[in-house]
Specification:
Blueprint lengths: L1 H40 L6 E6 L8 H15 L3 E6 L2 H9 L5 E3 L2 H11 L2 E7 L5 E2 L1 E6 L14 E4 L5 H12 L5 H4 L2 E4 L3 H9 L5 E5 H10 L7 E6 L3 E2 L3 E3 L5 H13 L4 H9 L4 E3 L7 H20 L1
Parallel strand pairs: 1-2, 1-3, 7-8, 7-9
Antiparallel strand pairs: 3-12, 4-12, 4-13, 5-11, 6-9, 6-10
């Protein structure tokens, strides 16, 4: 009986020792992981927040941008939070207030942000072999409208009030004709997104719209349900492509790490596959001066507005 009790005690002791060993092992791994993270991130332990406006890509393509941010997270070794916003003004405000580390924005909001609070370029996409894009003026496929001038007295869709291709360019075109959206169109709306403008034209909700050429071309290649029911009646001059931007005060080390991940994404299989789905060849460095043509339009329109006000 004594021997049996002794054996039971030994078994219980062995099990207790085994339990302690298994319990201590994950603790050790966990502590090592925390130490590694603390050493790598030091004072900059917060996650990286990157905004992708719904205007930059059609809804169908948003998943690829999410996947690309996951790719950045893997390369960076730090959590990357996807921030989705539906208008450029909000994204600009978030960058200004330090609520984002990076964002995909349109050319117009970049010019405004750079002027007003020092928004900085990080990289820009190269698509279809170019770092430019266009404003397409589109109408329904069966429309009798054959030119931009033929849209006089018709209904029209803009996208975002700060959009270059979806608002600034057509407004500039009208001003050159001594017209404004109010004097030229019977009515106009803001859809908020280029794919919604394309759909509105295709379904006859409006007689015409100004849309981002990159998004029209993307949809025309991947899902032409609505683009096939539209015609491009006017193509604007080229403008510097919508860039990826960062706030002025971003940690230089974080900024450079992000830039290198973007610039080298096309050099590995996973990055190249993701870029292909986003219809992007690669990311490249772009100079601020590339956006001078957008600035020129804004400046000219401001001068015209001042002249009109002085006449009153």
């Amino acid at each position: 009986m004594l021997r049996k009790s002794f054996l039971i005690a030994l078994v219980l002791a062995a099990l207790a020792m085994a339990g302690c060993t298994k319990k201590e092992e994950p603790k050790k791994i966990s502590l090592e992981k925390k130490e590694t993270i603390a050493t790598a991130d030091r004072d900059n332990a917060k996650r990286i927040r990157i905004a992708v406006g719904g205007m930059i890509t059609p809804k169908a393509g948003l998943a690829y941008y999410r996947n690309f941010l996951s790719y950045i997270e893997d390369k960076l070794g730090k959590e990357v939070a996807f921030v989705d916003r539906d208008d450029y003004a909000e994204i600009n405000d978030m960058i200004k207030n330090g609520e984002l580390e990076a964002a995909f924005v349109c050319s117009g909001p970049y010019v405004d942000g750079h002027k007003n609070f020092g928004m900085e370029l990080l990289v820009a996409p190269q698509a279809y072999g170019e770092t430019v894009y266009y404003s397409y003026i589109i109408v329904p496929k069966k429309s009798a409208v054959k030119s931009f001038e033929d849209l006089r007295g018709k209904s029209f869709a803009f996208t975002d009030p700060l959009s270059n291709s979806g608002k600034l360019v057509p407004t500039y075109m009208l001003a050159r004709m001594n017209e404004t959206p109010d004097t030229f169109f019977s009515r106009y709306i803001f859809t908020g997104k280029h794919d919604k403008s394309i759909q509105a034209v295709a379904q006859g909700v409006v007689d015409g719209a100004a849309v981002d050429s990159l998004i029209w071309e993307y949809l025309n290649r991947t899902n032409p349900e609505f683009t096939s029911r539209t015609s491009i009646i006017r193509k604007s001059p080229p403008y510097a492509i919508p860039p990826v931007v960062v706030p002025k005060g971003l940690d230089p080390m974080v900024k450079e790490r992000l830039r290198q991940i973007f610039l080298n994404a096309h050099n590995d299989n996973k990055g190249r596959e993701l870029l292909s789905k986003m219809m992007i060849d690669k990311f490249v460095v772009i100079e601020d001066s590339a956006y001078d043509s957008v600035r020129d339009m804004k400046s000219w329109l401001e001068k015209q507005k001042t002249k009109e006000q002085n006449k009153k």
